[in-house]
Amino acid sequence: MAEAGTGEGSIAAAHFWNRPNPVDIQDAVNERYDELDGWYVQGYWNLDGIEHLAYYLGADPVEAGDGNPIEPITGSYPNVYRYGYHVEIQDPAAPAEEITPVKHYAMGRVSWESPEFLPDERTVYGCSDGDSKGVYKFVADEPIPSYDDPMDVAGTLYAPKITNDEAASGQSPAEVSLDVEWLELGHASNAEIEAWIAEYDDIDQADYLATHADWERGDEVTAEVLEEADLEVIENGNGDFIPREDILEWARQVQQGRGRRRRRRRRTGRLHLLRHRGVQRRPRRPLERRRRRRPGTGRRRRRLPCGTRGGLRRLDARTGRRRAGLHRGAGDGGRRRRAPQRGQRVHDAGRPGPLL
Q1: CA-CA distance, 17 to 50, in Å (whole number)?
Q2: What is the pLDDT of residues 248-304, one digit of tens each?
Q3: Is the distance from CB of 340 to CB of 352 less than 8 angstroms?
Q4: What residue segments make up the domains of the chain, in order of their start?
Q5: Cα Rg of the chain, angstroms
């Protein structure tokens, strides 16, 4: 939508959450656009019942006539960002009036189905079936049961990127392997996200008209006013909620952060590899202090390609052959050591290193 400069042909139902008579948006699109330019408003049927939820929260009911009215519901109206989370029932055996449901905002907002909690009590996989869905991973900073207050649960949310062409082309995972790179989306706690969500608690259906049409609270609502608001939302998104520009800026920040992390990994990767193998980098001697050897004298070390007997070997500088049987390490105090066994790595003057 950002590239096209409009939501025409692709905008979905969530943008019409606080529209008067929200479930009627599909009929409004069909009437405004012909069969060639019209489109299916993804999830519009899921808007049915929002108004009843508003009445449950305390809004004054709007009198219905022959059809669903377009008079806006004001006052108590459900906040769209308070729905779509994993809900934990911490005391399922308690009486109904004492049960405490906890929404884990930090795990992400999707129409979740069947989350998978791993035995480490930190990792949660979530997904949902259907079109345009995905699999996500949340990793808590600490085991989730260890938090005294569930609102303090904090962690990182990840989304998968398929890295092998066969799976990315749409072939079934049953036929090809699935290579995944987990992309970090962000880190927050339940309390932090709940505080952001609270900023949208006072938005109602009157805001939909006032924000997107030439209309003020108390004015008469006509079909023309509602159509003007609908066209503005289709063109530029719902201004009552998080705008597209903010979402794109967040995506750019995530992408730039990944680029910086990749550069750091490339820059420091060799040092990490050496440390993992037990090799410490030592400062080189000044050029004037380095010992010079006459050609054909002494012994030198050369790194051979790693294989079943790879690693460092002491070679005779004159013949280029590895000394048979035993070899002496510079820090061994003159003791003779057995040659390394098959599969061992040798470093730091002949000391056996860990297998990788």
Answers
A1: 8
A2: 888 888 777 765 555 544 443 433 333 333 444 444 444 444 444 444 444 444 444
A3: yes
A4: 1-79+216-242, 94-199, 244-283+307-314+343-356
A5: 32
